[in-house]
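Lab notebook, design round three. We kept the backbone fixed and only want residue identities now. Task for the bench partner: fill in a sequence for the structure below.
Input structure tokens:
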């Protein structure tokens, strides 16, 4: 819902800029930069904290897994 509201506001700003005498270059620049800014400002999710017990269990599991499977899982020991 928030993204839809932001889209509506950006559309109104773009139309207002288009009405001005130098409007076309300003709108073109805005349309190019807005998606980049939205992607750059997107929040990243942190990985959960791993306890000592979790690492121990993972180590035990990796003893019984094949090397090919370990590489696929991304758990490089």
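Proposed sequence:
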């Amino acid at each position: 819902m928030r993204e839809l509201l932001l889209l509506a506001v950006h559309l109104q700003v773009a139309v207002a800029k288009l009405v001005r005498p130098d409007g076309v270059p300003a709108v073109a620049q805005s349309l190019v930069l807005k998606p980049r800014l939205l992607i750059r400002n997107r929040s990243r999710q942190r990985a959960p904290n791993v306890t000592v017990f979790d690492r121990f269990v993972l180590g035990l599991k990796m003893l019984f897994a094949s090397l090919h499977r370990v590489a696929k899982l991304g758990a490089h020991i």
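Keep this in mind before ordering anything: The CA atoms of residues 53 and 59 lie 10 Å apart.
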